[in-house]
Amino acid sequence: MKKANNQLCADAGSKYCPCHLAYSGDCIKCPITRGEKVCDCLWQGVCIYNELQHNKNVPVCERKETLCKINEVNELGNETFLIKINVPKSMLIDLCSPGAFVLIKSKDRSSDIFNTPISVMDVDFENSILEVVIKPRGIKTKNIINFEEVWVKGPYFNGIFGIKQIKSAYQKNTLVILNGLSQVNSINVVKRLLENKNNVVVFINNQATILDVIIEKLKELGVNIQSTDLNEDRDFLIDYIRRNNVEFVYSGGADLFNKYIMDIVDSVDPNIDLAISNSNLICCGEGICGACTIEVNGKRIKSCKAQIDSRAFLNSKNL
């Protein structure tokens, strides 16, 4: 695995860069801003250090919190809700990226401590609608469905590790494997893979929660969907990857599930590109609070912003 300073920041090159971390000398990407003497960031975009020097007297471009109208709430079963929210088109444009998420809190909450990260399921540009799925559990999410408006802050981009592999996959045989509520962020992944003319097949674990709304959207995209017991059919999955020359796999599930899929993929070929859902704790989304910090190969990494090699991450989790 590359050194921590060679990790790609999900915000690098966006309008949110340089961020507060760069100004404080803690930039994820740029070693010069951290006081190091050698520039080895391998970044091929606009130089973060130069941008920082030019913008010293310019306020950091921060994500805005917007009070948005809830257009529709539908119960999907098992205390899970599909929420359609009217959001500004300026925000919606970025929310179609794989791994995009927002911070949402109920209308009656003013403090940012009530923000909860929610993965983007889908966007409707024509009607300026953001679609998310929420399972109300704790104090942060219980009240969201009880109001006609919610606070939405975003966009954020690091809900997936392996975004580069997703965006660079072109005309390949690809496999998307989904488990439980993590299937929600698969729509943007599948859309990007299809845009890049990849052959996409989706396996869904039928021993976990299956959301019909996700199945319907995947069918509309025209992909082949297979519902299977991924524990019982391990050998079938291995054979499928081998026979179909699969070159890229996306695993959307909790860490244990993703580790299980990684082991299957690696048993065929450890060189197959692998991307996984980011299931880490995220609080502020800006790498400031430290709640998302994890250790990978002896390096402390802010997992809400830094892209991490999927295999290095899963092997570091002691699963």
From TrEMBL:
PROSITE patterns: 2FE2S_FER_1. InterPro entries: 2Fe-2S_ferredoxin-like_sf (IPR036010), 2Fe2S_fd_BS (IPR006058), Beta-grasp_dom_sf (IPR012675), PyrK_electron_transfer (IPR050353), Riboflavin_synthase-like_b-brl (IPR017938), Succ_DH/fum_Rdtase_N (IPR025192). Residues 260-310 form the Succinate dehydogenase/fumarate reductase N-terminal domain. Its cofactor is [3Fe-4S] cluster; [2Fe-2S] cluster. GO terms for molecular function: 2 iron, 2 sulfur cluster binding; electron transfer activity. Belongs to the succinate dehydrogenase/fumarate reductase iron-sulfur protein family. This is NAD(P)H-flavin reductase.
